[in-house]
Amino acid sequence: MKISVYLSKIGSFVLSLAFAAGTLTSCDSLYDYEGDCSATYRVKFLYDKNLKFADAFAHEVRSVTLYVLDRNGRVVWQRSESGEALASDNYAMTVEVDPGTYDLMAWCGLGDGRSFTVPAVSAGAERETLTCTLNRKHDSSGAYVNDRLENLYHGYVENQTFPDSEGEHVVTLPLTKNTNRVRVVLQHLSGEAVDRNKFDFAITDENGLMDWDNSLLQDEPVACRAWRIDTGTAEVDPLEGGAPATPVSVAVAEMSVARLVKGHRPTLTVTNKDTGRKVLSIPVIDYALLVKGQYEDEKGREMTDQDYLDRQDEYSMTFFLDERGNWASAQVFINEWMIVLSDVNI
Q: How far apart are CA 65 and CA 105, in angstroms?
């Protein structure tokens, strides 16, 4: 009986020791084991602030610069990545920081720095230094850009916790697109061809200096001039019972501008180079918002004015000229929508 009891106790002890060893081998180094109890932190970037309400990060963004900020708003870690790796749906940046709670901030799409510049910073830099500047030239008329801007994106989230626990921890950083393409079409009501060399096109705003939170800082006016002006043709649909559709020649100007922010007043001007007279001058944001409701109806979602401006990144505006070359301001096409204007002093 004593032997039986003694063996039973030894068996229980051996089982207990085996269980304890099995528990330790996954995280400790008592035995050769390939388990890993470390914490891995990764940041996944999300760009769904668009009118499709779908993530387009992998299709659009080709470079990212991420800053990790401590609770005092100072940079503790940063990294830049670019290239084809970002085109993977599974892309996420590995972040090497101690466990804790951080703010995350990113400028994405900077490319080779041709269009925008972000200052180089080191560990300990304050977040107020993480501004982004639209590169510009100067001539006798002031600051301007006349190139197609690289697409720029901004992201910022607060109070993201990287826990001290085993496994992979993923934090999502949503992005806002800060660049817009604007296409301006000039067309004569008579159908007469429009001479593309006769006009200057520009959108002027004080939006060339963006802060760490994507707000606009005080800046000089910068004129975003057309980077391309073409001649094209468009078919005018006939009125009911009228003449058949006829092609007309139009001038098409392509411009790209930085972020459009409600409360600012970017102004589109078209100037006759022969006379120096402004053919038209309109507030871009006011006109852009005239069709916001159409996109709300399509998606069944309500948007604030700023949300729409951040989601819409392409605008097409068609203006008609009368026989004297003046803007016939009774109507304008914005994207595919015709707007009939009763008061052009918007």
A: 9
Cβ neighbourhood burial of 138 (10 Å; 0-12, 13-18, 19+): exposed
pLDDT tens, residue by residue, 91-122: 999 999 999 999 999 999 998 889 999 999 99
149 plus 274 within the same structural domain:
no
Average pLDDT of the chain to the nearest whole number: 87
Mapped onto helix, strand or coil, the DSSP state of residue 20 is helix
CATH classification at residue 113: 2.60.40.2100
Q: Is 246 helix (H, G, I), strand (E, B) or coil?
A: strand
Q: Which residue has the tokens 């006009």?
A: 199
According to DSSP, residue 128 is labeled: G
The strand pairing partners of 341, in sequence order, are: none
Residues 85 and 121 in one domain: yes
Q: CA angle, corner 150, sides to 279 and 290, nearest 5?
A: 45
pLDDT band at 233 (very low <50, low <70, confident <90, very high): confident
The reply to whether 189 and 240 lie within a common domain is: yes
94, 98, 100, 104: CA torsion to nearest 10? -40
Under DSSP, is residue 260 helix (H, G, I), strand (E, B) or coil? coil
Backbone phi, then psi, for 100, in 5-degree steps? Answer: 160, -170
Residues 334 and 198 in one domain: yes
Number of domains the chain contains: 2
Q: Are residues 140 and 230 in the same domain?
A: no
Q: Which domain holds residue 120?
A: 39-177
Q: Are 171 and 249 within one domain?
A: no
The verdict on 276 and 263 lying in the same domain is: yes
State how far the Cα of 230 lies from the Cα of 199, in Å rounded to an integer. Answer: 11
Give the DSSP letter of residue 163.
-
Longest dimension (CA), the chain: 119
Dig out the tokens for 131 from the structure.
Answer: 């501004």
**156 occurs within a structural domain:** yes
Pairing of strands 132-134, 116-117: antiparallel
pLDDT at 235 over 50: yes
- Residues 233 and 168 occupy one common structural domain: no
Model confidence pLDDT, tens digit, residues 165-193: 999 999 999 999 999 999 999 999 888 88
